[in-house]
Amino acid sequence: MTAETTLIPLSIAVLTVSDSRSIETDTSGQYLVDKLIAQGHHLAAREIVIDDIYLMRAAVSKWIADPAIHAIITTGGTGFTGRDSTPEALLPLFDKTIDGFGELFRHLSLSDIGTSTVQSRAFGGMANQTVVFCLPGSTGACRTAWEGILIEQLDSRFRPCNFVSHTRAKA
Fold first, then answer.
1. Peptide bond into 87 cis (omega under 30)
2. SUPFAM superfamilies of this UniProt entry (predicted)?
3. Which of 71, 83, 94, 171 could be cross-linked to 51 through a Cys-Cys bond (beta carbons 3.0 to 4.6 Å apart)?
């Protein structure tokens, strides 16, 4: 197996789950968009939906079914408030879960937010050859996930392994 020398750009969709944000006030979603484009990936789609199980499932299901979308990153709805329902909405869509993602995210966020990290239900999975990462809604949490995990795991050049080879992305 030879190492990739050039990035295989992914088409990535970003979903913000929020009852109060708009495109203009969505700093977390904008952070992710800016970072994925700066890394050489393509923004395939961006939406904001309220914290409603069926609206989240509809948006993500549409993207999972689209062969042109390789990855989905969601932000918001992963906490413990009454309205937080991203895990309940999206976990049933997965073919496989990426258990290590949530574990590693909470480990990394411990240094930023202390034991409050136990209230994060960040998670990831694979569905129809689409990798899905679900992050908390704060921009700081998105930064922790991007810099500590996603920048490498969405990079075809990262070794010993990354998620690009599990998607429909081609060189």
1. no
2. Molybdenum cofactor biosynthesis proteins
3. 83
Which CATH number is 51's domain given?
3.40.980.10
Cβ-Cβ contacts under 8 Å for 86 (sequence gap 6 or more): 17, 51, 56, 74, 76, 77, 78, 121, 134
Question: Residue 1 falls within a domain, yes or no?
Answer: no
Report if residue 24 sits inside a domain.
Answer: yes
- pLDDT number for residue 150: 98
Residues 18, 23, 29: CA angle, nearest 5 degrees: 65
- Full domain range(s) for residue 148: 11-166
- Alpha-carbon 123 to chain mean position: 8
Total domains, the chain: 1
Q: What angle do CA 147, 166, 106 make, to 5 degrees?
A: 35
* pTM (2 d.p.): 0.96
Q: Which of 135, 124, 127 is nearest to 168 (CA)?
A: 127
